[in-house]
Structures are given as C-alpha cells and as structure tokens.
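Attaching the record inline, Q. Sequence:
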Amino acid sequence: DEKDVLNEFYNNFNEYNYWYYYGKKIFLNCKNLKKIYLNPWYSSSNMGLIASSKYFKVKTIDIQHGLQGKYQPMYNHWKKVPKTGYDMLPDFYECWDYIIIKNHNSSSNTNFKKKHKSILIKDNWMNFYKKNFNLKKKQKVKQKILFCVQPTISKNDLIIPNFFINFLNLEISKDLYFIFRVHPAHRYLSV
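Structure, as predicted:
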C-alpha cells in the first residue's frame, strides 16, 4: 500500500543521508584513504558512501558479486549518463571477465564508459580477498574474534566504539584475529 512505499522511501532516504554524512567523517579522518571496495554498490548506504567519496576524490570500486547478464539493470543500459557521471555510481566496476565488460559497455553511453569504467579483476575472488584483505586459510592465532557492527543510536554515532579501537592498539591484541561484520538487518531509521 501507499503508506508502506512511503515508509520504505523514507527509510532508504535516511540510510543514504546517514552514510553520506558518516562517509564525510570517515574521509576527513582517513586522509590517506585512496579507494574503497563495495559489494554491491546499489544499496542506499553504499550510494551515500560513494557520493561522499567524490567530494574527497576517493575512488570507489564495485566488485562483481554474481552473474551479470545483458539485462541486469544496475550495470547495463545506462543510456543518458551526463558528461560528469553520477555521484552515486562507483568509479569502477571490477568484472570477472570480458563478456561482462562488453555487456556494460555495449548497452551504455560513452559517458558511462568514461566515468564509471568496467575493468577486469586481475585475480579471482579468493585471490583478490587474500591479497587485499589479508585472509589466509589457516591463521596461526590464539583466538578469532567476530565483531558484529550494530546500528548507531542518537547518543552514539560511532560504528566501532572508541574503547574497542583503543583495545586494538594494545599489545595484547596482536595475537588475535578480528573479523568485522555489519549486521544484515543494518538500517538507519533516523539521522
């Protein structure tokens, strides 16, 4: 019904805005950050993060996460992209093979191909993650710790609390392996 559609729009709009402004905080505090990887680019939160990254000239890369045929609307048939591109689209799409790149390019205009370029992933999925995120099959660590990131609340806008960041900087944490995971129902209902 109409109320549900408006509520969904409201929630997505708030999520976009939250990540747009939170992204600005991240990029202000991480001045050496040159690029971020996303999977997939088309959630409200990722679009907000991408838009804020443009302000700081941080490159955004979408990593292909599934089959993208000729008719996948989030990656193909971008016919009216302006010369400056779109702020909410990533700078690059890392694709599994040249067939996917051909699908992106043959169905979209020249501006899309210039501003939101499709490129080949040089490694397969696991090699990419091992190289860029230091994943190893067998970690020789005493303990693995899964840190589930929770939605922020108005009294606390830190996704990773300061006490945890302080702990990560302690000598005691060097033998621990931390895995950070965003909660799957992560939603921001207010900014």
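The two ends are 25 Å apart (CA to CA). The first strand starts at residue 35 and ends at 38.

More tomorrow.
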